Write the structure tokens for this entry.
Amino acid sequence: MIKSMTGFGRGESSDEIHNFNVEIRSVNHRYNDIVLKMPKHINYLEEKVKECIKNKISRGRIEVYINLEYIDDSAIEVKVDLLLAKAYKNALDDLIDKLGMLDDVKLSHILNFSDIVKTERKELDEDKTWACLNLAVEEALNNLINMRIKEGLILKSDLETQLDVMYDIIEKIEERSPLVVKDYKKKLELRIKEILNVDYIDEERLAYEVAFFADKSDINEEVIRLKSHIKQFKESLEDEEPVGRKLDFLIQEMNREINTIGSKANDLVISNCVVAIKSQLEKIREQVQNIE
């Protein structure tokens, strides 16, 4: 089944230390472009997160937002630089003495120096951290994929409708094509009679000219290939694998065939049909841009 490249998914996972909240958004893109925003101290897990995504999504711009809260305060360590604190106190005492101020150095004064107290994350078990994060990533991915599938079903239905409309127009071209040669023969015969002002025409010469025109304007092969491409397109919509690039290629091929038909068929009715098909193909192309 086809999937849209647009979607959103959220996942959450907790253990006795971590609480992970993961949000994943995706939009259309030619390649698999993954952008991660996560706490710096767990950047070592970035490649594992990307690998999870690549295993399930082959195309699109994927934006991943990972938020981590620690449940257990044992994961946080507060360090105080006592030597630096004493140095600051001695310097402040000396300054007060030299300025002749009647004041004392208080703890609040020393704490204004941000380099005295530092908060650090303790060394955590990498496997345990990943196990918790992986659950949240998988949940967010599954929710994202479900949304992409739902939107894919809507796209599939719309594409099938557009293809049916296009097929009907092609059949009109097919019905009209034999009449073009007959109309050309009648017009050519009348024109020759008008120009030469005669009632008799060399039938052999006329047949030659009509045969030449018929060969030059024959669009039977192009119509057959165009119908074949539409059939392939519809069959591809049922594939389980990502088909976005394949559908894009088929659209290019259909455009090539309809352009050839337009250049060969010297007929107003067929020309109008060609314009209508090009309009349908453009609508289809826009939809395909959002298929994985």
About this structure: The CA atoms of residues 236 and 243 lie 7 Å apart. The two ends are 10 Å apart (CA to CA). The first strand starts at residue 7 and ends at 14.
